[in-house]
User: Fold these one by one.
Assistant:
Number 1:
Amino acid sequence: MAPKIIRTVAALRKEMAPWRAEGLTSAIVPTMGALHEGHLRLVREGFTKADRVVTTIFVNPKQFSATEDLGKYPRDEEADVAKLAAEGVNLVFAPDPGEIYPSGFVTAVHMEGPAKAGLEDKFRPHFFDGVATVVAKLFIAAGADYAMFGEKDYQQLQVVTRMARDLGLATEVIGIPTEREADGLAMSSRNRYLSKQERQQATAIHKSLTQAAAKIRAGGKPQSATRAAIRSLTTLGFKVDYVAARNAETLAVPKTAGEPLRLLAAAWLGTTRLIDNIAV
């Protein structure tokens, strides 16, 4: 059975109100569409936590800078809804930009902390304020008990978690491990842009992170391990934006031994930018 498609916040609240009245719990899975197996994993995990699942499809213009082509972002609502129907999703919230950002909209959520870690924010300084603003609006609109986010976008996960905590929002953010292809490549909507040869090369990112993590666990210094990963990827033809070892919660540069660590990487392969991360 196809899920009901909702276009307005008022309609979303109207549909979800009876669930709460019946004592049913709900989970929200925010997406920008172009759904793949990683997104569907979030939906399945949502059903393990809640009675009902709402998936949002909204290409958020506030996440795009003037140099990024918002118009070229892949959109296929019909295919996305078909995939969500197969997973039993109860509602799809697919608003127009004017519904989320009506005329005269001037409010934004400004993030520090994990949003200013010198990782993704170094290359897309506008990005996390845009993410935090739209996610806060979605959380407030839906009032869901849980929100499912993938660990592949690890900095985003930490930003959203901190935002919800700091603003006292009732929705609990749940991080879900990265869904990977059989050869280790993190699933991403961007993988479709890789040529056949690039697709084979792309596995090197996960391999280099795995090797760096092993060196650190064996007693090596994080900085030395990440430098070696950068050299390896560069030799293989990647243009590396960063490979970094950070505190797993704050994303700050680690200062003491024994801190929980996360290795994060971003690199270009041809015209495609890939990101990945793993725990140490």
Note: Residues 248 and 261 are 5 Å apart (CA to CA).
Number 2:
Amino acid sequence: MTLYHIGFIVNPMAGIGGAVGLKGSDGGSIQRQAIAMGATPVAPIRAMTALNELSSMRDSVSLLVYPGEMGEEVARTCGIEPRVIGNIEPGKTTAGDTRLAATEMSRLGVRLILFAGGDGTARDISTVIGTQIPAVGIPAGVKMHSAVFTNKPSDAGNLVRLVLEGRVTRYREAEVMDLDEELYRRGLVAPKLYGFLKVPVASGLVQSLKMPSGLTETEAQAAIARWVCENMESGCLYILGPGTTTKAIASYLGVEKTLIGVDVLENGKLVRVDSNEDQLLELLSGQRAVIVVSPIGGQGHLFGRGNQQISHRVITRVGKNNILAVSTPGKLQSLLGRPLLVDSGDATVDAAISGFIRVVTGYNEQAVYRVTS
């Protein structure tokens, strides 16, 4: 029987700043702030979802992991007895630990590295392994501009399984993008290319590179904003997700919206700026609301990329029928027919949203578009 040696790395702090509205998780101070605000780690749970997809190959997979929260704990929880290498200081893991883990796994000849994290984690891994060996990213961060992550955690495990079974044999050099989180928190979105990872090619499993809206989108955004604002209901909360299209809606009302935050309007006025998950849930107590969200250009994610504040709990409280998707025609065209995606962190909620949804594309113009989890 063939034994496949796989590297498995978990960045335990990846994504911890998402639901509490910190727009990232890089650095110890941000991580401590997130924990103080009540955030709980999401990366281990998402890593577990991915690894469970390999359960049928448990006897033929040799998993190399770093100790404790960097992979060992998740592996054992999934019923896989891993080979533990390296050392960490529990509760104080760093980007340096990620780089060391990837370096050692590469040296030991793993066939592939499966990792849970965000753009920063992908950047750390690409720094040391480049395109020497394949890598698959489990989406667990906040931003995830890079084209190295699967659309949802279970897809990562499935993709690795397909590679090991010989059913996926093609690879491509996928872009690793990252941005300065301090600038990002000030509304300056300027991702940079930091390298490439060798990623298996499997249609429908790996997300595309995030593409920003161009200046030519301005008129379309203004038309969308006018239609949305003219049809707003009195006494209803409007939860505006991040992005330039939702910002145009606020601008039409004369309101200054945070570009990368989640703001809440009622009767044309701001009632909450840069909200986190708990604040949204508090506002939603007994009140009707509409979530206004725009897909990420080039990727198509409606939920789960950069807007984790609008969590599956918030979506459940608001209800599927009160999700208002808005997108310029150009952004939809950039998807080349691929569906819109949801990755809220709860499979039941994702399934409920899946199907077909109306997307506002202009003034009194809508498109019916497929959504999948």
Note: The radius of gyration is 20 Å.
Number 3:
Amino acid sequence: MRLSTSAIALVVGLLVNHEAHASEQPQRWVSAGGALSEWVVALGGESKLVGVDTTSQHPESLKALPSIGYQRQLSAEGILSLRPQVLVGTEEMGPPPVLAQVRSAGVQVDLFSAQPDLPTLKGNLEHLGALLGNEAKADQLFAGYEQALAQQKAWVIQAQARQKAPGVLLLLGHAGGKPLIAGKDTAADWMLQQAGGHNLATHSGYKPFSVESLAGLSPEVLVFADRALTGDAARVALFKENPILAATPAAKANRVFELDPTLLVGGLGPRIPQSLVALSAGFYPSQPKPAP
């Protein structure tokens, strides 16, 4: 079958337009916010990244990129020195005058929401997928994520039919220093709920830990996230700097679990479903472990 001259022209035109569209996509990206950077990688955009903030530590390869500092304390000079075409981040990114300066230099600044819920994640992935020209992959990733959380929810319901939800406190600290207690309306609170825990903190946001704040609370489980230390060193530092925590039922029963603090930055990230499985296993040790 021979193609007519007009059909050939149409095919050539489509190919040219596709190539032009691809070449128009920004090739130099900077990302601020751990979860957002992970999604850029998951969507095949890692090769476009020329810089990330200090919370962008996963995958390991991102640590080799130039750092633009902490997402809330960015400097325009540091960002612009990387000659980016696009800066992506959440509403946690700032300060606003720096973002304004970056925009005025001709850099496209795209803001995403860090709200921890599925509708927000769906919108974020659709937006990011469009920017990267990979909408189909974005839809695929969200579908898998939604399914994983549905399985997690079903497991928690079964576990709670046999065991009462444990009272939990989540502490966010730095080298064991006075930590912050994660309250309502935080990504930490959302994670505790999804894992089947009952957050004993009733305040909103993050509140400095004190002896008074622990009064009347008997956490059965402690979850800690340290920005400077990991493993046994982080745990030892937490109890050394805050000895009253050692007297809690959680510490006495050795129900103290570590959480990667980067999971709490930039909204819902790709590693959260797997982390929820690990938390749930600690919250309900007598139940069969949830499937990863």
Note: The chain has a mean pLDDT of 91.
